[in-house]
Amino acid sequence: MTAIDGKATDTGADLLPTGAARRRVLFASLVGTTIEFFDFYIYATAAVLVFPALFFPSADPASATLQSLATFALAFFARPVGSALFGHFGDRVGRKATLVAALLTMGISTVIIGLLPTHAQIGVAAPALLALCRLGQGLGLGGEWGGAVLLATENAPPHRRAWYGMFPQLGAPIGFFMATGIFLLLTASMDEATFFSWGWRVPFLASAVLVGVGLWVRLRIQETPAFRRVLDGEQRVRLPMAEVLLRHPRALLVGTALALATFVLFYLMTVFALSWGTSRFGYSREQFLWLQMVGVVCFAATIPLAALYADRFGRRRAMILATLAIFVFGLGFAPLFVAGDAGATLLFLVLGLGLMGLTYGPVGTLLAGQFPTAVRYTGASLAFNLAGIFGASLAPYIATWLAGRYGLQSVGWYLCGAALLTLAALLAAPRDEAEDASRGRADGRRAHAG
């Protein structure tokens, strides 16, 4: 029995995988989130570039874009429901089976989007069906993320939890890179009419192949040692959601707030930036997607750096430093994101998405550590996805409204406000064992020097 961030948990250290089994677990946690985020991001890209014209025709392009972004937001409201649904079975039945079900839910919803008729073909039923599929995506991702993080961290040695927890987090930039790359490839290989006729459907239909690969990998892994110990000790709770809400409300509140700035930053740098850059600043779709691709490489590169620092000095401390940097970045939002200066915009994307990696790398492990094993799937997933509602679902919509009414710097102030809320939550969160060990080393050095 050990403690994670002040919570008594049973890691099952004697059952931790080694060698090929460990690599299989890490790959399974990575490949699943990569597929899920690929599915999620192709919708985000299409919501800006395609759906306003095909599913929400309007004389006012800005109004059509806002309607499309509203369907984008739907998934974030479905994600907590997915957390409750899949979290219940994840904490009752097991991580492995629940992760398979979450992947199927997300994958099927995505493939159906690629088959939907447009507004010109079936009228108002088209956006209604699109919204329904978007809800399915939200349900699937609501159950996916928490299970993938637990699959990695519950198989990790105590001193390597942030490093193991980094693997599912890498699925976000890899999935985004793949989603952006396939839209760039389609843009380069076909004209505008062909793209809007059927080309946009290709990424959604191609998801079926990726889901097949993900299922093959996940069906070959074992249940986590920590959950096996819960089963052996008959520690399962009857209603994990009720347990989280009644016995761990503070952890839920702190966990939601500490992930808030992470969500706001990411969806400002991706959905809002793409929409504003192509509609107001005159960048072509292809040009801006290339700029974002470079930024996403920086996103991926800073995730392992943050994990290494978090295992050495503490996950909470790593996120505090990243959040302070996000606040500073918000102050300079407008001067960097400008029309007609691709160099400045590239720097804007590199800095913003690089900071995203620094906060995203440790957030999964830190959230998991807020809850005991018996309700960790439900608790961590719910906190993460509630942060998605408050921090991401409406971020592109709010940012578009703010920028149009008060100027682009108001979007930066919006990011600064989110960073302050996250910083307050991080200061209220308990220290983790790596942070305590780091403090002990520092105290020892001072004592020796004295």
CATH domain class: Mainly Alpha
Strand content: under 5%
Order of strands across the widest beta sheet? 1-2
Overall pLDDT, averaged? 87
The run of helices and strands is EEHHHHHHHHHHHHHHHHHHHHH
What's the CATH architecture name? Up-down Bundle
The number of E-state strands comes to 2
Helix content: over 70%
How does the helix and strand content classify structurally?
mainly alpha
Rg calculated over all Cα atoms:
21 Å
CATH superfamily caption: MFS general substrate transporter like domains
* CATH topology (level 3) name: Growth Hormone, Chain: A
Features:
450 residues; mainly alpha; Growth Hormone, Chain: A; globular; Sugar_transporter_CS; MFS; MFS_dom
Summarize the structure.
It is a multi-pass membrane protein. By secondary structure, the chain is mostly helical.
Structure description:
- This protein is an all-alpha fold.
- It has a single domain (18-439), classed as MFS general substrate transporter like domains (Growth Hormone, Chain: A), CATH 1.20.1250.
- Helix content is 81%, strand content 1%.
- The chain contains 21 helices and 2 strands.
- It has helices spanning 19-49, 51-54, 61-92, 95-113, 119-122, 125-153, 161-189, 192-199, 201-218, 225-232, 240-247, 249-258, 260-279, 285-313, 315-331, 333-336, 342-368, 376-393, 395-406, 409-428, 433-449; strands at residues 2-4, 7-9.
- Strands 1-2 form a two-stranded antiparallel sheet.
- Strand 1 and strand 2 form a beta hairpin.
- Helix 1 (19-49) packs antiparallel against helix 3 (61-92), helix 1 packs across helix 7 (161-189) and helix 6 (125-153) packs across helix 18 (376-393).
- It is globular, with a radius of gyration of 21 Å.
- The model is unreliable at 1-12 (pLDDT under 50).
